[in-house]
Inverse folding.
């Protein structure tokens, strides 16, 4: 098992290098320079000043030299200094926001698992029933609905018309003065809409996948054997079929992580949540290369880690994988 | 049952193709259908709620929302088709090469696919577009450039299963070159799955475009798009619900249409996949 994990981790390194090379080159080859924003807006900026800025940020060197020096810095855990006016280290900027994003992504994953799996399994077990049909419509709409629009509708309905839920940020203004219990309630209220939105997209995919899987498993010979030997239907479904249908779902969960992280830009921007997605939106607009690269790197690492965990969990659960 | 019989029998597919056709008509006839000029500013009538005159209300500049949505249908359609076209071309070529040649060509291409797949694509799109100037052409191309991986996998799988068939051997025996075999003999047999991927891809591209336009880095005002009308909806969320409701509904209906059509084509082409 350790050997398997080791191999997977080694495999991640070229993948990560590939990702950073693509990002770095795509961004730096794009026209426009981060110094444009600082110089074009400023009538006093001279050509020399622009050049000095270029030298300061090493933008005057050939791109492969820039990439190499970036890579060297990364190997020391240094993501560089932000180009924005606060000139703070990128690592600090990301780290103060990362926990918020990870917490929301993690909770969303839990919600997705808790709802999508029973939904998919029940749909498959009661195939073509009313429940299955309603679930099917729900899944179909889940695939087609723009989540940011759903967010707007929920904000209008629950936030503005009914006034039940807050629509921006993570805390109320008077958060500091609340009792711990009231603080918890406040945080929960702020989290309901963002969590709903961030898990909504994943729900449809996983439950549909679970349903298809379960239908496939139910038709297998060993299920017939279990029925033939007189096992109760309940045990057949929940002991034999469910376990086998659950296995491939682990991989799907791993694959859904890039989507979740990508989605964080949208819902964090809409709900004004101070997480990594919102930061990414801001730094992309400000052409802050080091921070953009830093977040892309962290996003890629999170994705690869998610895939690794999914693969290891799969290998632990299914001995057939380990042998091959 | 042949393709068309299955196709007509499925009510959902008919709904899907009906919706898609309707949208095509709306985009084609936009200049005649729109009750107002989509760019006509009327500062005496800003943020008017829906009425007989302005069925879907007006936006913060007093422009008619319905007219802007009708013109916006053109943008969605354009983005959907061009972006998907780019993705299909790249995906088909790479998938065909990987599946036909196998070996190191396959390894290199599929590792590249792996890299692109385990990437928060939306982050990459956002970064690239913000660094380029946001324009409709840029977003169409970027959405296409980041959306070809699924097509590559599909086409590769088809090529692997087809490349040793008798008709390919026969073509080889009469001296057909690799390119001829790939494009004239094998590819036509893989068109079915490509067509399905294209239809579903259009839906995905429209969703991505609307999200980008909503964030302000997609289609730029004053060009109307469903996404950028929603941006105004977000800014005026507490007073103008119609700016949020209708454009989103249009996106939802469009995406549902293309998804139904795509799944319907798949079911009609390959009955084995029907569940």
């Amino acid at each position: 098992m350790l050997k398997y994990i080791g191999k997977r981790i080694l495999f991640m390194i070229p993948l990560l290098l590939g990702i950073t090379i693509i990002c770095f080159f795509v961004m730096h080859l794009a026209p426009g320079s981060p110094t444009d924003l600082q110089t074009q807006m400023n009538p006093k900026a001279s050509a020399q000043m622009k050049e000095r800025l270029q030298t300061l940020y090493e933008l005057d060197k050939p791109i492969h030299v820039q990439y190499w020096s970036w890579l060297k810095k990364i190997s020391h855990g240094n993501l560089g200094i932000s180009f924005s006016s606060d000139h703070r280290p990128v690592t600090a900027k990301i780290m103060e926001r990362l926990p918020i994003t990870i917490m929301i992504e993690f909770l969303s994953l839990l919600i997705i698992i808790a709802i999508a799996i029973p939904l998919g399994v029940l749909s498959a077990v009661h195939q073509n029933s009313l429940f299955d049909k309603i679930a099917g419509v729900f899944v179909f709409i889940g695939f087609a609905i723009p989540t940011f629009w759903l967010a707007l509708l929920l904000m209008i309905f629950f936030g503005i018309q009914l006034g039940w839920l807050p629509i921006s940020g993570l805390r109320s203004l008077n958060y500091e003065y609340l009792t711990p219990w009231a603080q918890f309630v406040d945080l929960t209220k702020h989290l309901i809409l963002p969590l709903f939105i961030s898990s909504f997209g994943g729900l449809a995919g996983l439950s549909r996948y679970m349903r298809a899987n379960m239908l496939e498993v139910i038709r297998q010979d060993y299920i017939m054997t279990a029925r033939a030997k007189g096992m109760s239907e309940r045990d057949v479904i929940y002991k034999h079929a469910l376990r086998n249908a659950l296995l491939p779902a682990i991989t799907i969960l791993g694959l859904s992580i890039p989507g979740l992280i990508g989605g964080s830009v949208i819902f964090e921007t809409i709900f004004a949540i101070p997480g990594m997605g919102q930061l990414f939106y801001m730094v992309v607009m400000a052409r802050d290369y080091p921070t953009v690269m830093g977040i892309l790197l962290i996003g890629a690492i999170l994705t690869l880690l998610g895939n690794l965990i999914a693969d290891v969990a799969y290998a632990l659960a299914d001995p057939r994988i380990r042998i091959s | 049952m042949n393709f068309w019989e299955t196709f007509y029998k499925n009510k959902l597919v008919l709904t899907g193709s009906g919706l898609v056709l309707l949208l095509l008509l709306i985009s084609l006839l936009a200049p005649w259908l729109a009750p107002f000029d989509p760019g006509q500013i009327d500062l005496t009538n800003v943020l008017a709620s829906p009425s007989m005159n302005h069925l879907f209300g007006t936006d913060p500049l007093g422009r008619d929302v319905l007219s802007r949505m009708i013109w916006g249908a053109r943008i969605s359609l354009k983005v959907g088709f061009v972006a998907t076209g780019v993705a299909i071309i790249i995906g088909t070529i790479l998938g065909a090469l990987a599946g036909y040649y196998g070996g190191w060509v396959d390894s290199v291409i599929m590792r590249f696919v792996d890299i692109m797949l385990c990437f928060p694509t939306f982050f990459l799109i956002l970064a690239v577009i913000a660094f380029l100037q946001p324009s409709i052409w840029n977003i169409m191309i970027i959405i296409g450039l980041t959306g070809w991986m699924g097509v590559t996998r599909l086409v590769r799988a088809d090529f692997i299963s087809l490349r040793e068939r008798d008709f390919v051997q026969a073509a080889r025996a009469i001296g057909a070159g690799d390119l001829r075999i790939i494009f004239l003999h094998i590819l036509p047999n893989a068109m079915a799955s490509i067509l399905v991927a294209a239809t579903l891809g259009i839906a995905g591209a429209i969703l991505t475009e609307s999200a980008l336009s909503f964030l302000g880095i997609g289609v730029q005002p004053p060009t109307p798009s469903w996404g950028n009308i929603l941006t105004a909806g977000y800014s005026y969320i507490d007073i103008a619900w119609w700016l949020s409701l209708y454009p989103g509904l249009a996106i939802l209906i469009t995406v549902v249409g293309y998804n139904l059509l795509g799944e319907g084509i798949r079911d009609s082409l390959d009955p084995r996949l029907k569940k």
Observations:
- The domain at 3-30+63-273 of chain B is CATH 1.10.3720.10 (MetI-like fold).
